[in-house]
Amino acid sequence: MIDRHPWLDALAHAVLIIGVLVVAFPVYVAVIASTHGPNDFMSGLVPLLPGGEMVANYRSMLTDGLSSSGAPPLGGMLLNSLVMALAIAFGKIVISILSAYAIVYFRFPFRAVAFWMIFITLMLPVEVRIVPTFKVVADLGLLDSYAGLTIPLIASATATFLFRQFFLTVPDELMEAARIDGAGPLKFFRDILLPLSRTNIAALFVILFIYGWNQYLWPLMVTTTSSHYTIVMGIKRMSDVADALPQWNVVMTTVVLAMLPPVIVVVGMQRLFVKGLIETEK
Amino acid sequence: MQTKRTVFGNRLLPYALLLPQIAVTVVFFLWPAAQAVLQSFQREDAFGLSTTWVGLANYLDLLDDPSYLNSLKVTAIFAPAVTLLSVGLGLVFAASLDRLVRGGRAYSTLLVWPYAVAPAVAGIMWWFLFNPTVGLLPYLLAMIGYRWDHALQPTDAMILVVIAASWKQVSYNFLFFMAGLQAIPKSMIEAAAIDGAGPVKRFFTIVFPLLSPTTFFLAVINLVYAMFDTFPVIHATTGGNPAQSTNILVYKVFVDGFIGLNLGSSAAQSVVLMAIVVALTVIQFKWVERKVTY
């Protein structure tokens, strides 16, 4: 820093420490709650120190689920979430990079129309047009399937824009040299453009994985039997037990399991995550 | 629109490359959106047997509908509250971190991870913390004589959903402010320091004005987030209640369309929301391109 203000530095540390604690506090309470047996919540206050039921809670939820509220074992739900998140991330990247390639490296009639059509999807969040979209998926017979969970969500304007911006910065000479050497468009794409896009793809993958994993309303709509439940929507079913207080310890066990994978991805790939986040929104 | 200086000459290949994206867009985006627009001009009888063309009646009904006006009012409180809280805290954390020479990375990691938590999960965690029977915060509030009950008190419910919705968004705003702060040339700050401006004065006369493009961008993004992406927070916690006090517009579209089966009205509400998103997106692009001036 330019000038020394020890009290200001102390204040900055204090603000950040309080911030970190406030941010972590709900998660701390959730983790603690997931280590207790159901009777520890009868006293009228949530326990703040770890209990001894952690292994039992996680094991029973992962393998048996919660029969009283018709919740299937969490193992299957985690798997469904993983399939959904990976399919959405891969799907979005593949269809976006192909369409960005077409828009930047070719000139053809209706190019602008295609560009604007993709752009419009950016403006229509699924929540806003949920009823007609649900109807389309139902008419196509895609309810209760992985296809129904993922395909309606894989059109992505943001990913297309990111790749378009990136392709525009790739030097023209690369493509000209490739053409002189006799490479066709597919060879150029595979051998030159794709390797150059590696970092962008990875950064985007982190963001899209989180996006896919955290989907809530859409899986809630299109899954009617428990075989395709995802974990984020499953929490709702569990905390909604009719005429009974939620079993907090197992609800919080589910909460912890639902947020662990995306949090690990963000913390483990922080650099890629920050790059992906800041670049997709520009 | 930009392309390369030289392009490939194939005629059919570009269409083949675009096909998957366009197909998904048409089937799952444009077609449903068109359906919503069409339905908003129609009314279905109670048994779903016949539909009649009613013109603008669905829209006009909205203007007379007290529950819709209430929902507008709720959104007008909720969305700016979430935006102010999460953008404000993001700026405070980023500005604090910017002062520090060491420890930056650790703090930053510890502040960033909530972005990964699903809104629904964030909602459930805060709902648990604020639960009137077992939650910690009502227990503490009772000590100072406040009886917290978000199942009965509209204000309590609103505070709950605002906090739950803002919590995970702070990390996002923090990251963008960090990027914005790093882009400010150090020489400007140094020049101001030499001229005798203290850290507080420097922040308000130099740093904050230079951050105005970032702030504006985040304000729009957070408004969009609060209006549309917070659906899971409401659905997983208050369900729009008590007494419709947290029934934001996007939640009402869902309730009227799926539970009330009032398709015409729900479609009209969808169209209004789409218009709002389009307006916000256009504003964002226009202003971000031009950069806010200072």
TrEMBL record, chain A:
Pfam families: BPD_transp_1. GO terms for cellular component: plasma membrane. The keyword Cell membrane applies. The complex is composed of two ATP-binding proteins (UgpC), two transmembrane proteins (UgpA and UgpE) and a solute-binding protein (UgpB). PANTHER family: ABC TRANSPORTER PERMEASE PROTEIN MG189-RELATED-RELATED (PTHR43744), SN-GLYCEROL-3-PHOSPHATE TRANSPORT SYSTEM PERMEASE PROTEIN UGPE (PTHR43744:SF8). The keyword Ribosomal protein does not apply. Belongs to the binding-protein-dependent transport system permease family. InterPro entries: MetI-like (IPR000515), MetI-like_sf (IPR035906). The gene is ugpE. Part of the ABC transporter complex UgpBAEC involved in sn-glycerol-3-phosphate (G3P) import. Probably responsible for the translocation of the substrate across the membrane. GO terms for biological process: transmembrane transport. It is found in: Cell inner membrane; Cell membrane. Residues 78-269 form the ABC transmembrane type-1 domain. The chain crosses the membrane at residues 12-33, 82-106, 113-131, 151-171, 192-213, 248-269. This is sn-glycerol-3-phosphate transport system permease protein UgpE. Its main location: membrane.
TrEMBL record, chain B:
It is a multi-pass membrane protein. It is found in: Cell inner membrane; Cell membrane. Residues 72-284 form the ABC transmembrane type-1 domain. One of its GO terms (cellular component) is plasma membrane. It holds the Pfam family BPD_transp_1. The chain crosses the membrane at residues 12-31, 77-97, 109-129, 157-181, 202-228, 267-288. GO terms for biological process: transmembrane transport. Its main location: membrane. It comes from the Bacteria. Keywords: Cell inner membrane, Cell membrane, Membrane, Transmembrane, Transmembrane helix, Transport. Belongs to the binding-protein-dependent transport system permease family. Part of the ABC transporter complex UgpBAEC involved in sn-glycerol-3-phosphate (G3P) import. Probably responsible for the translocation of the substrate across the membrane. NCBIfam families: PRK10561.1. The complex is composed of two ATP-binding proteins (UgpC), two transmembrane proteins (UgpA and UgpE) and a solute-binding protein (UgpB). This is sn-glycerol-3-phosphate transport system permease protein UgpA.
